[in-house]
Design the sequence.
């Protein structure tokens, strides 16, 4: 029991140390993003000398933060390794020897802490790596008067420009399609409005269809009378001759 208490205190110390370092690592990751050259570069491009000075100071700050990040990452990896060894090689066997459920639960808890801390550290480290790669690519693309000597970087920049042009072209086409869709929608609404007005007019004159039918019947009777009169005249003419 006394042996396990000593190991538990050591694990608690490593846990607090690890939490402090990971918190510092999070803060450092945010600092690297804030102090990036893209954040400090002017978008107007009207004062190139001022932009160059700002970019140079930002690069120094970013380099210092990157060095600090590398040192802190190594310390976190060492602390994770110490905690892992302590749990698996000392605490777990001690818990089995003591044969107490409380000790087994503590071992399980520290393993969960180790798992969560490792995932948190890997997630932050991956985000920093992706951010650094993005900054290198975009800072190389936005630097005026400096030729990129790395052929691979030049290829990436060309691909980036081509993708950017494609995205702009696609956006323009989508905007045009959206305008056409809105125009067609407005025309459809206008046509539906006309149809509604026609139905309303038909509803206001319920006897209109009946009136048209009566006119058609009366015209049919008139045609029959005229036809009979013409036939009688023809017969009378034939009889007279």
Sequence:
């Amino acid at each position: 029991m006394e042996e396990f208490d000593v190991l538990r205190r050591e694990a608690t110390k490593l846990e607090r140390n690890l939490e402090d370092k990971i918190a510092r690592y999070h803060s450092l990751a945010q600092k690297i993003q804030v102090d990036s050259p893209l954040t400090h570069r002017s978008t107007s491009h009207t004062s190139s000398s001022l932009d160059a000075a700002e970019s140079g100071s930002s690069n120094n700050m970013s380099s210092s933060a990157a060095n600090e990040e590398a040192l802190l990452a190594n310390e976190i990896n060492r602390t994770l390794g110490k905690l892992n060894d302590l749990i698996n090689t000392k605490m777990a066997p001690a818990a089995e020897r003591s044969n107490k459920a409380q000790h087994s639960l503590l071992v399980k808890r520290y393993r969960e802490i180790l798992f969560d801390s490792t995932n948190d550290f890997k997630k932050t480290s991956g985000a920093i790596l992706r951010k650094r790669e993005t900054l290198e690519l975009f800072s190389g693309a936005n630097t005026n008067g400096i030729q990129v000597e790395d052929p691979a970087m030049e290829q990436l920049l060309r691909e980036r420009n081509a993708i950017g042009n494609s995205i702009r072209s696609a956006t323009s086409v989508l905007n045009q399609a959206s305008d056409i869709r809105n125009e067609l929608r407005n025309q459809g609404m206008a046509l539906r409005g006309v149809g509604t007005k026609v139905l309303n007019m038909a509803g206001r004159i319920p006897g209109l269809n009946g009136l048209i039918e009566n006119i058609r019947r009366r015209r049919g009777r008139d045609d029959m009378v005229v036809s009979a009169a013409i036939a009688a005249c023809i017969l009378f003419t034939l009889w007279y001759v």
